[in-house]
């Protein structure tokens, strides 16, 4: 089998689906699915070690370098959450 066969078949499946359905799928490669999966896992607060292992990276630093944008977003959300804990809400006086 040629190395490009799986991608070609996957694109064909997407094309056929899009021709027969109103809700269209994006044209994405199999490798693109890998990135999507990793980004979604990180967005769901799955620890980087687990994501790294699922991707087959021998070092978590590889995962962290590639998915820094997703990790940065998670860091921003963590900072917001922590900030909310320290926000004093004024109670109504009777």
The total of beta strands comes to 0
Tell me the span between the first and last alpha carbons. 77 Å
Number of helices: 5
Strand content: under 5%
Rounded to the nearest angstrom, the radius of gyration is 20 Å
What do the pLDDT scores average to? 88
Helical proportion?
55-70%
Number of domains: 1
Give an overview of the whole structure.
With 94 residues, this protein is mainly α. It has one domain (5-86). It contains 5 helices and no strands. It has helices at 5-20, 30-43, 48-55, 60-66, 68-86. Helix 2 runs antiparallel to helix 3 and helix 3 crosses helix 4 (60-66). The N and C termini lie far apart (77 Å).
Features:
about 90 residues; mainly alpha; 5 helices
Topology:
Elements: H1 5-20, H2 30-43, H3 48-55, H4 60-66, H5 68-86
Describe, in short, the structure shown.
The chain has 94 residues and is mostly helical. The chain is 68% helix and 0% strand. It has one domain.
